Please model this.
Amino acid sequence: MELLDIVDENGKPTGETVERKTAHSEGIRHRTAHVWIVRKSDEGAEVLLQKRAMNKDSFPGRYDTSSAGHIQAGDEPEESAIRELHEELGIKASVDDKEFYGKMFKDSEIAFVYVYTKPVNIDELTLQKEELDGVEWFNLEYVYDECRKHNQKFCAPVGGLEIVRRFVRGTGL
Model:
C-alpha cells in the first residue's frame, strides 16, 4: 500500500495521508516530484523523455517526463526526486546537481519540478524495466508543441514543459 500526504493548495502536508489509488480516484490533492533532464544541442535545447512501460496502468508506451514519481508520506520533494532519478534511470544525483526551479499544479497533484543538466549518456543508463521501456532525446520545442496538440505519442505534462522552457531561456542553455 502506497501512502501519500494529503496537502493544501500550497503543497504543505495537512497531517493526513491517503492511499495512492484513492487519491487518484477521488481527486485528493497530493505531491509528485518531476526531474527533467535537459541538454544543449545544435538545434536548441533537448529534453530526455522516458517511454512508459506497456504494463503501466496509465499512458502505456507514451513518452513522459525524464523521471517522476509520487512523494511518499513523510518524504520531502528533493529526496523523492533524487530517489526516482536513481531508481528509474540509475543516475546518482545529489541536491547540488540540480536546480530547484518551481512547482506546477496538475490534476490534484502539486508537482515539484527539478532540472538536471549534467551530461547524460543514454547508453550508460540503467533503466527500471518495470517502469519504462526506453529513453530518447527530443527537441524541447517540438515536445512542447506536440503535447499542447495532445499528440498521443506523448503524455508529458505541459505545465512541466513550460517550467523547463523558462529555465532554458533564463540560463541560455
